[in-house]
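Reopening this one. Same input as before:
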Amino acid sequence: MIDSRTASIDEPARPRLPPWLKRPMVASGALNAVERSVNVGGLHTVCVEAKCPNRGECFSRGTATFLILGNTCTRNCGFCGIRHGAPMPLDKDEPRRVVEAIWRMGIRHAVVTSVTRDDLADGGAGQFADVVRRIHSELPGVSVEVLVPDFAGNQEALETVFQTQPEVFNHNIETVPRLYAIARPQAVYQRSLEILARAAESKVSLKVKSGLMVGLGESVEEVGSTLAEMHDAGCSMVTIGQYLRPTQSQLAVVEFVTPERFDDYRDIALSIGFTDVRSAPFVRSSYRAGELVGD
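Same output, byte for byte:
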């Protein structure tokens, strides 16, 4: 039997967070209100499932990012804290409950993402489409941002989402191509670039957004090159934030990137031609997403 008092001796010490990555405590009242709204519908949020460090701030502001298609991913990315394995069958009633939760919470810009569902023929695109259509139909005035997986490159699945005309179409590149083998071993960098390009070339008007995490060992030059390729693909909005290890099972942080370098990354992105850039240590794909669309 392992003695819990000595179990950590052979484990690598967790790196001490620098001052700019320490967050103040948030009062529990608003957190509980959001959790009740989500839980009453049997729903999931990426805030909780991915152990997002912004959970307290976002919940205190009465918002959350909905995680559809269940909470079990068919992939196992090196950076992600969401559980992986065999998911539950598709819940056809989930879109209705998402809309009800958005209404209860008074959200004006709804962000909807999902686990990857390689077990489904359309990767879950139909579920995304149902959610977007319902929000537009039942909650006029609420804008929608979808943060989609790659649907294994299925063009028909992408078109299914495009045709619902979400106000923002988001697909994360996540990291520089050199690090895909460790961070996104079941994904393909060029395929993700092509998804951004297809969204930008779509016959419907879509704002195309993507995101990068830094601190995994990438160089400034690699970040600049990746941003340029994202922009060339048609992406106009980008988020850049610090990778933080969700649990000891995920990749270790290689570097805590300084706020000054995040400012440099913002300047690089703007110089390349991005129209909307959010670059700071705690920035995540959906962090204060409504601000980028004027909500």
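So the earlier flakiness isn't reproducible anymore. For the record, Residues 25-293 form a domain with the TIM Barrel fold (CATH 3.20.20.70).
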